[in-house]
Amino acid sequence: MDILISIIYGIVEGITEWLPVSSTGHMILLNSLLKFQDTSDGFYSMYEVVIQLGAILAVVVLFWKRLWPFGIHEGHPAVKKRAMRMWGQIIIACLPAAIVGVLFDDKFEALFYNPTSVALALIIVGVAFIVVENYEKNMEPTITRIRDFTWKTALIIGLFQVIAAIFPGTSRSGATIIGALLIGVSRTCAAEFTFFLAVPVMLGASLLKVVKFGAVFTGHEVAVLLVGCITAFVVSLFIIKFLMNFVKTHDFKVFGWYRIALGAFVLIAGATFLK
Fold first, then answer.
1. Cα(46)–Cα(3) distance, rounded to whole angstroms?
2. Which domain holds residue 238?
3. At 230, phi and psi to the nearest 5?
4. Are the CB atoms for 120 and 183 separated by under 8 Å?
5. What's the CA gap between 275 and 266, in Å, rounded?
6. Angle 215-216-217 (CA atoms, 0-180°, nearest 5)?
7. Fewer CB under 10 Å: which end of the chain, C or N?
8. d(CA 221, CA 156)
9. Cβ(244)–Cβ(193) under 8 Å?
10. Please, which pLDDT band fits residue 144 given cuts at 50, 70 and 90?
């Protein structure tokens, strides 16, 4: 049963990690309905983060040529300056959220990792998407390629990522995309950069969770985690391609409306259940 549950989690992770609808929020909501039956205490807290490694691998596979900073030039090993500069900007963008996460991760998890907080974040960011898209609809983006990013651009996007590090349901991709749109980055470029940001962010968060968990797994837990990661990887391959094609001709408002509807449903369902 746990293997089947892990497949379901992997599908949800693979879909929601890249769409700006909050993977963590969906995982928290899903966990209120489906729980692992034969795992140790604390396993799920680690699992919901480490399963993202499968999603990371999809980005690495799809964007390998742009992400890998080394190559061959005239028969000799060479460094791709453009890729190295991009990685520098990715690191700058990741630092604020990394610092906040390392210092306060347990505190934020205790305060905000619950359905009500997730629902409110879903609604608030959903409204933000609609407002930002309406504000930007008649404006031409000033940045259409990641190579045109300045260090300031990367840092501003990184500061928006901190919001997602604090409030589950915000969506890391949602926060960074909104921040990017507000400073004139095109939708396609904003989506790409949030994909790239995910690599060090998720890798760091996963390592932190494994260390806290103790890196002591039963064979059953290893199987559950591997199934979830593999499922998330396969689903992510399709979702990333879908989103990159979608944003070429559509805005993000549909995701805003979805977030509002889901958040309202969770609040209503929670209130009804409590009664």
1. 16
2. 2-274
3. -65, -45
4. no
5. 14
6. 110
7. C
8. 39
9. no
10. very high
